[in-house]
Design goal:
This protein is α+β, with helices and mostly antiparallel strands and about 180 residues long. Helices cover about 20% and strands about 35% of the residues. Strands 1, 2, 3, 4, 5, 6, 7 and 8 form an 8-stranded mixed beta sheet that branches.
Length: about 180
């Protein structure tokens, strides 16, 4: 994996936040999702542990396509699209701090093989820096996401997508 400048902190309510200190996917206009997809390929074959449940979550080839091309991604605009793109660099830590596990049965035929035992959703949070005119970090914006994890026929958990990204309106953390 490429160099990553990431840490995990706790907010004033003792909830964990993945602090992504460097913006990898910049740009004034739209996100180049092909670059994000290429970056995500570095994770394929890796696995990470959810601290709360001790479950291992694997990264398969389907993450790259789904992360880039899902309905959730296509509806994102502006800052939320850039936030999702940059969340890619914090995937190991987002999995580590994931919480609030919820199960949902597989309801569609198209996932009968790859999500035979259904789906899990976990909550996670991350923060991205906001730069001022002098390119100094002024503050961090905090985002909430749901991690969509499929339970495969091999009885393994695979990260499928990061969805429902929302910017939090609470007071953002200052530079860590």
């Amino acid at each position: 994996m490429k160099d990553r400048n990431i840490s995990i902190i706790k907010d004033s309510n003792n909830n964990k936040i993945v602090m992504i200190h460097d913006i990898r996917f910049k740009g004034k206009r739209s996100v180049c999702w092909e670059e994000v997809e290429e970056y995500l390929k570095e994770y394929i074959g890796e696995f990470f542990e959810i601290a709360e449940t001790k479950e291992l979550v694997y990264i398969g080839k389907d993450l790259t396509h789904e992360f880039k091309g899902s309905k959730d991604t296509h509806r994102l605009k502006g800052g939320l699209a850039k936030a999702k793109a940059n969340a890619a660099s914090g995937i190991p830590e987002l999995i580590e701090i994931a919480s609030n596990r919820r199960f949902k049965e597989n309801l569609t035929g198209k996932h009968q093989r790859n999500a035979k035992f259904g789906w899990f959703r976990y909550d996670s949070r991350f923060a991205l820096p906001v730069y001022g005119k002098s390119e100094e970090v002024e503050r961090y914006n905090v985002f909430h996401v749901e991690m969509l994890i499929r339970h495969s026929a091999e009885d393994k958990l695979f990260l499928y997508d990061i969805v429902n990204i929302k910017k939090e309106t609470s007071t953002p953390p200052r530079q860590a």
